[in-house]
């Protein structure tokens, strides 16, 4: 049994499969990949988290908090970049763990990421619905209370209809083909970046340096507390790495896209935090729409509307990126036989994993439409942080066990950089609420049951001849 659960996928075989696989269509260039990364990283956080973290944790020094969080996140990003250049196949941390740590740990991280990404989609859809409703109200359009929120979220609320529709629309878009859906995502990301830049440039003319004093009212502990809070705003590039098998030149473009998207996001977060704490006192920013309210206080309602449009675009791109990631994780688990291979059948025309995509779309629509956001959000984060630990640790292990494997990109200063990523991720994991741990352990226990009753017997590593059969069946229009 111990030999079975620790069996690994050969990296050279993975590289060979990546070059010959016809299951997914390679259409993504470096810009499309960067747009997916920016879509996942820059969301509502730039319009909300900057203000809340400044008011409650770091004051104007939240800019330094973002730099610290960005450096910590970049440690994991560099590790992801090395793996992306070495193993350019779908699955991200799950596939990397399979190659280095063995099947059981790979299954655990894949199973964990599946629920994480799915819950992110539900949370984001609920948030997007709220922004759209707020924007409609601001222009005089009032939606019936019955369809604007899940039961228990307000008087007369029965269903969050817009959240349901956006989940279903995104799943439809993702099944239509990666080239078309990536083009749509790129347009949305450009709108988002334009809105962020307009907000920063206009706000720069209203900065009052006196608002930056004291710069660090909560001292160094406040800066570090702010870094822990905003760390969740500067990851998301891991979602992009799940699309490795749909990149034209993954070994070159994926590492580049990961680092570019993180750098652009970090610069924008720092600039936004400096502008926001410069135009109003940081003490006024602890609310659900700090950027929009700050510009309303300056009597600039047009900019406030631009902020709302940017937030909607930002949230839409986050939803796109994480539903994409969830479907690719499910696809990878199924193709490896750990879940039924039926889910790994790609569309005969569009070459997309349409079955898991539609299932995720329907599940997230039901969750987002009928469950309050506070309940859904409690489980998000622990899986991504666990994946960071796995990826960083795997880089250290692989440098010792297989140092001669070709790497188009190499993480610098190993083991220092991976250790930084591990320490920061573990610190944040420990700080999570007990209820998060309880629900995580319940999901983990369910995953272990699935693995030992199904996955361990049906793994492709049990039957070497299965890969070709899977690929042929997957691309059969009658499948």
UniProtKB/TrEMBL annotation:
<feature type="transmembrane region" description="Helical">
    <location>
        <begin position="219"/>
        <end position="237"/>
    </location>
</feature>
<dbReference type="GO" id="GO:0016020">
    <property type="term" value="C:membrane"/>
</dbReference>
<feature type="transmembrane region" description="Helical">
    <location>
        <begin position="61"/>
        <end position="83"/>
    </location>
</feature>
<feature type="transmembrane region" description="Helical">
    <location>
        <begin position="382"/>
        <end position="401"/>
    </location>
</feature>
<feature type="transmembrane region" description="Helical">
    <location>
        <begin position="302"/>
        <end position="325"/>
    </location>
</feature>
<keyword id="KW-0813">Transport</keyword>
<feature type="transmembrane region" description="Helical">
    <location>
        <begin position="187"/>
        <end position="207"/>
    </location>
</feature>
<feature type="transmembrane region" description="Helical">
    <location>
        <begin position="155"/>
        <end position="175"/>
    </location>
</feature>
<keyword id="KW-0472">Membrane</keyword>
<dbReference type="InterPro" id="IPR002293">
    <property type="entry name" value="AA/rel_permease1"/>
</dbReference>
<protein>
    <submittedName>
        <fullName>Amino acid permease</fullName>
    </submittedName>
</protein>
<dbReference type="Pfam" id="PF13520">
    <property type="entry name" value="AA_permease_2"/>
</dbReference>
<feature type="transmembrane region" description="Helical">
    <location>
        <begin position="95"/>
        <end position="114"/>
    </location>
</feature>
<keyword id="KW-1133">Transmembrane helix</keyword>
<feature type="transmembrane region" description="Helical">
    <location>
        <begin position="413"/>
        <end position="430"/>
    </location>
</feature>
<feature type="transmembrane region" description="Helical">
    <location>
        <begin position="357"/>
        <end position="376"/>
    </location>
</feature>
<feature type="transmembrane region" description="Helical">
    <location>
        <begin position="258"/>
        <end position="282"/>
    </location>
</feature>
<feature type="transmembrane region" description="Helical">
    <location>
        <begin position="119"/>
        <end position="143"/>
    </location>
</feature>
<feature type="transmembrane region" description="Helical">
    <location>
        <begin position="436"/>
        <end position="454"/>
    </location>
</feature>
<feature type="transmembrane region" description="Helical">
    <location>
        <begin position="30"/>
        <end position="54"/>
    </location>
</feature>
<dbReference type="GO" id="GO:0015171">
    <property type="term" value="F:amino acid transmembrane transporter activity"/>
</dbReference>
<keyword id="KW-0812">Transmembrane</keyword>
